[in-house]
């Protein structure tokens, strides 16, 4: 798990670091730390969160191992499967 706030000293530096990680396929998913939700990097819900709450994962297994659940918007089928497993 990589915290966005740890990727640089200012917004431009962090943005460049995120783009580099995406190009290198080092990250494929984003997450919201307080809510413990992960989703695709293109998810509209994820793009609205505060940068200090944003984390990145290399893959889904890493996100699940960290205790995160799928996003109900961009990963709807996985979210419903996760939700149904609770009940």
UniProtKB/TrEMBL annotation:
The keyword DNA-binding does not apply. It comes from the Bacteria. Residues 31-74 form the Ada DNA repair metal-binding domain. InterPro entries: Ada-like_dom_sf (IPR035451), Ada_DNA_repair_Zn-bd (IPR004026). One of its GO terms (molecular function) is methyltransferase activity. Keywords: Activator. Pfam families: Ada_Zn_binding. GO terms for biological process: DNA repair; regulation of DNA-templated transcription. This is Metal-binding protein.
């Amino acid at each position: 798990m990589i915290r966005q706030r740890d990727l640089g000293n200012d917004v431009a530096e962090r943005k460049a670091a995120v783009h580099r990680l995406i190009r290198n396929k080092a990250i494929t998913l984003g997450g919201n730390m307080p809510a413990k939700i992960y989703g695709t990097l293109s998810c509209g819900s994820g793009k609205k969160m505060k940068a200090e709450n944003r984390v990145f994962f290399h893959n889904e297994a890493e996100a699940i191992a960290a205790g995160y659940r799928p996003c109900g918007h961009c990963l709807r089928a996985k979210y419903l499967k996760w939700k149904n497993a609770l009940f």
